[in-house]
Structures are given as structure tokens and as C-alpha cells.
Write the C-alpha cells for this entry.
Amino acid sequence: MTLLLTGVLHIPLWCGKNLSKVQWKKVDYLWPLVAGIGLMGTVSEVRSRVASDWAETEHTRAVLSLESINKYTSNQLESFLCTNEKGVDEGVESQQSCAWFLESTLYLRSMNFNELPNITFDSLPKITFSSGLIESNIMYLEGMFDNYQSQKHVYETTMLETKKHPLEEAFWYLSPYLICIAISVRVTKVSAELKMEKQNS
């Protein structure tokens, strides 16, 4: 296409018609502008594709964070807390704690992790009992949920970078043609200036 357009633009030169030196200088404002617009479309497409690749990575990390939370809660059901006999008072609290871990595990398993649900520690079943036995577990889970929310935020921010403005979309589709036009105009300008130099020499 570039060669064809260049040939078309050279037709007036072959027919003996040419612009003045000043007019060709004005063309120097045109072809860089056209090329720049074409490159803007290309740059936006590259940015979008790179962001899309990163988004997949961030999505995987966020899903893994949720899976780690789910695994942690389910592992507590097989921990010392839930598999060993306790005293009367401690046994009641232990049973309540294990029941909470079970409810939390079932709640998490009901989620579609790939959709990255907007859940926090407060989304888990409410603790209505004395949680002294699992206080450290609660703190650890809160940290895991904070990490998940951070990963989710990074993913959502990256996804925003994959979106393009309608003008960027238009520039992307037009960029090959715009760059061809810019190259053809530039080559024609050089040919015209060479012709003028030959005529003046």
C-alpha cells in the first residue's frame, strides 16, 4: 500500500507539476502529525496487551490467595484444636471454634474464586462465642484477607489499563494507513526537493 500511494503521489511530479519550496516545508508539519497519530494507536494497543498479560498474572495471584484462605480454614478442622479432647469449659469453646471453622470453610467453598468475590474477614460467619482459643488464627486470617484484597485491587487497577478510549480504538484501526500516508508523503517530499535541486543546478 505504501508503494502504491507513493506512486500515486509521484504522478504530479512526473507530469511536471511541483509545489514550491515553501509549500513543501509546510508539508513537514503534516507528515509527522499523521505519523504521530498512527503511532498513538499502536502504543495504546501495546499498552492494552501488556496490561492484559499482567492482569492474568494478578488474577491468578488473587485466586491463589483465596484458595490459601480456604485451605487454612479447612486445615483447622484437622488441627490439634478439633481432634483432641479438652476439659469441659475448654471443650465447649473448642467445639464452637471448630463449628465456626466448618461454617467458614463451607461458606468459602460456595464462592466462585475465579470471579474474585468482594469478601473480607467480616464476610465469614459471625463469631458469637469466646474466641480466645483461636485468637491467633483470627489475626492470621485477617492478614490473609487483607492480602487478598490487595491482590484484587492490583488486578482491578491493571484491568483498567486494558481498556482503550474510543479514539484510541479508532487510531489503532487507522494506524497502518496513517503511517503509510506519512511515509508516502515524506518520500514524495524528498523526491520533489531533489527534482527542484536538479532544475536549479
In short: The chain has one domain: 2-200.
